Amino acid sequence: MTVRVLVTGGAGFIGSHTVDLLLERGHAVRILDNLQPRVHPRGVPAWVPKEAEFIRGDVANRADLAPALRGVDYVVHLAAYQDYLPDFSTFIHTNAESTALLFELIVADRLPVRKIVFASSQSVAGEGLYRCPAHGLLTPPPRPVEQLRRGDWELHCPYCGQTMTHAVIPETVASPGTTYGISKYAIELLADRLGRRYGIPTSCMRYTYVQGTRNSFYNAYSGIARIFALRLLHGLPPVCFEDGQQLRDYVNVKDVAWANVLAMEDERANFGIFNVGGKRPVTVLEFARIMVAEFGSDLEPLVPGEFRLGDTRHTISDVSRLEALGWQAAIPVEQNVHEYVEWMRQQQTTDEFLHEADRVMREQGVVQWVEKG
Predict the structure, then answer these.
(1) Quick check: 39 and 216 in contact, CB under 8 A?
(2) Judging by DSSP bridges, how do beta strands 74-77 and 136-138 pair with one another?
(3) Would you give the distance in Å from CA 15 to the centre of its chain?
(4) What are the distances in angstroms from CA 130 to CA 133, 166, 186?
(5) Is the pLDDT assigned to residue 142 strictly greater than 70?
(6) Which of 69, 163, 171 is nearest to 120 (CA)?
(7) Number of structural domains found in the chain
(8) What is the pLDDT of residue 200?
(9) How far is CA 221 from CA 13, 64, 181, 217, in A?
(10) Would the CA dihedral through 146, 149, 151, 154 be positive or negative?
(11) Section 269-276 average pLDDT
C-alpha cells in the first residue's frame, strides 16, 4: 500500500530534500508551500519534483491546510517563518498557530493521520548548557546587550560572575531566548500534549546549523554559508561576528532529511524530541577559512567587532538519542561548503541580495557594534 505524506514547506531548503528522500523511498508526496517572497521571489523553484503534488497555500490558513490534509497518512510539518527581522507576531502566528490548527483539523475531521514530524530548532535551548567552576551545570539566560556592546562575548555565571565553559546540549534543555525559539518551543509542547491526548504520535526535530544546496540566498536568515559565499563570490572577505570563536555543529541538509524520514518511519521515535546536529565543533572563523579555501581565494576573514542580536555563543548538540535509532551525521563540513558553493555558482545571483539583507539588519538594529571606550 502506498504511504501518502504531506510535507509543509516542501519547496524550501530542508523540505525539498525531505521530499526527494520520501519519493526515493516510494512514498506518495503532497507539498503545501506559500512560496514566501523573501525565500522564493521567483515562484516555484525548479527542484520541486513533478512526481509530487504541489499546493500553494499558507499552513496557518484553515482554507489552505484543510484540503491539503485530506487523504494523507503522515505529515512532515516543516513550513515556518524565520528571519532576523523583529516580526514577533509572525513567528507565533506562522509557527505555533499552524501547529495548533493542524491538530484542530485532524481532531475535528477525524483524519486518520498516523504521525506528525515537526521542525523544531536548537534555538529552543537558547544559550544552552554551561559549567561554572563553582556552581556546576547551568542553563544561562541570553547575554545582555550591554555586555555584548563591551565586547564581552563569553557566558558568565549568574551567581558568581565567573566565565563558564560550554557543555554539549541534550534535549532536556529548553530556555529559548528569541521569539523564533519561543515559537518552536510552543510547537514541541503542542506536539507532546495534544499528540498524547488524541493518540497522534509526534516527533520534534531540533535542527542546528543546516548547510547544503537550495539554501536560499535571498533571505538573510539562510545563514553563514550564504553570507560568506555571496561575499567571496563578489570579491569581498567574509565577516565574522563577535570574535569568530563561536562554536557551531554544522549539519548537511541531506543528513537532516534522513533524520526526518527516519523519525517518521520508526515507531521508536514516537513522542520524542531529537537534536539533529553535525557533532563536530567548528568555530565561525574556521568555517570562514574553509569557505575561503573552497573559493581558492587569498582573502582574510574580517573580525570587526560586530554582533548580531539573538545569536548564541556556542552550540554543540548531543545527538546520541538520534544515533540510537541508527542515524549518523555522515557529511563533513568541508563537503557542505563544497556542495553549496558549486550550487551557488550555477544560480543567477547578484550582489543586491548581499547588500540589501545587510542594510535591513543594520537599519533594524539586528547588527550592532562594540562600543569603543
Answers:
(1) yes
(2) unpaired
(3) 11
(4) 10, 4, 24
(5) yes
(6) 171
(7) 1
(8) 98
(9) 12, 26, 14, 9
(10) positive
(11) 98
Question: Which residues, in sequence order, are CB contacts of 13 under 8 Å at separation 6+?
Answer: 210, 212, 214, 215, 216, 222, 253
Strand locations in the chain, DSSP E? Answer: 4-8, 28-33, 53-56, 74-77, 115-121, 129-132, 136-138, 165-167, 202-207, 209-211, 247-248, 250-252, 272-276, 282-283, 306-308, 314-315, 367-369
Q: In what order do the strands lie in the sheet with 74-77?
A: 53-56, 28-33, 4-8, 74-77, 115-121, 202-207, 272-276
Task: Tell how strand 209-211 and strand 250-252 pair up.
Answer: parallel
Q: Pull the grid cell for residue 313.
A: 555563543
Task: State yes or no: pLDDT of 357 exceeds 70.
Answer: no
User: What is each CA distance from 272 to 112, 192, 345, in whole angstroms?
Assistant: 20, 8, 39
Q: What is the spatial distance between Cα 78 and Cα 81, in angstroms, rounded to a whole number?
A: 10
| Inter-residue contact 270 to 202 (CB < 8 Å) | yes
362: containing domain: 4-369
Gap between the Cα atoms of 128 and 291, Å rounded: 27
Compute the distance between CA of residue 109 and CA of residue 111 in angstroms, rounded to an integer. 5
Give the confidence band of 123 by pLDDT, cuts at 50, 70, 90: very high
What is the greatest pairwise CA distance in the chain? 69
How does residue 359 score in pLDDT terms, banded at 50, 70 and 90? low
What is the distance in angstroms between the CA of the first residue and the CA of the last residue of the chain?
Answer: 69
Residue 373 has pLDDT above 60, yes or no: no
What is the CATH number for 11?
Answer: 3.40.50.720
pLDDT-derived band at 356, boundaries 50, 70, 90: low
Q: Is the pLDDT of residue 216 over 90?
A: no
Q: Which regions of 94-199 does DSSP assign to beta strands (E)?
A: 115-121, 129-132, 136-138, 165-167
Rounded to whole angstroms, how far apart are CA atoms 363 and 44? 30
- Residues composing the chain: 373
Please name which of 49, 8, 31, 15 lies closest in space to residue 253, comparing C-alpha atoms.
15
What's this model's pTM, rounded to 2 decimal places?
0.94
User: d(Cα 238, Cα 223) in Å, to the nearest integer?
Assistant: 12
DSSP letter assigned to residue 370: P
